[in-house]
Amino acid sequence: MAIILGIDPGSRLTGYGVIEQRGRQLNYLGSGCIKVIGTTKEPLTLAEKLRRIHDSVSELITQFKPDEFAIEQVFMAKNPDSALKLGQARGAAIVAAACAELPVAEYSARQIKQSVVGNGGAEKSQVQHMVMALLNLQRCPQEDAADALAVALCHAHSSQNLIKMAGAARKTVRGRLR
């Protein structure tokens, strides 16, 4: 059994999703969004946003006690400033996981979509639909939360494949089946 915390980082909204993996069975434990926006009268500084992400992820780790942590890699957006902010948000979340001594796995958006939908170029609505189906959810999670659950599902699928490969490797000697 493993509890996996998936994170979809963002400089305004950071999605999180928590699942439990028992062999091939995957169970939904929770999901939501960390809002890192201030008010129009008092906007948050970048440092305050990063602290809020770090503190919120730390609280999630305390609440759910995950065994593993997975996060989406930075993709190069059209705007380099946005990519930089996204990277900083990722860093704040990763530091929270590192402080809790969790192993950190990183996946590209293409890997996540391929793992969950079967198509690396899938639309967000397709990801949401498959997250609902795979976790047997009654309603569609918010977009950023669904993306974070997809990160956790991708990690679960990746670890299942590694277990299969390790089992197959044990059954072979010099590339031949025993």
From TrEMBL:
Mg(2+) 1 binds at D8, D144. GO terms for molecular function: crossover junction DNA endonuclease activity; DNA binding; magnesium ion binding. SUPFAM superfamilies: Ribonuclease H-like (SSF53098). It is found in: Cytoplasm. Coiled coil: none annotated. It catalyses: Endonucleolytic cleavage at a junction such as a reciprocal single-stranded crossover between two homologous DNA duplexes (Holliday junction). Pfam families: RuvC. It is an enzyme of class 3 (hydrolase). The active site is at D8, E72, D144. Belongs to the RuvC family. Homodimer which binds Holliday junction (HJ) DNA. The HJ becomes 2-fold symmetrical on binding to RuvC with unstacked arms; it has a different conformation from HJ DNA in complex with RuvA. In the full resolvosome a probable DNA-RuvA(4)-RuvB(12)-RuvC(2) complex forms which resolves the HJ. This is Crossover junction endodeoxyribonuclease RuvC. It comes from Idiomarina rhizosphaerae.
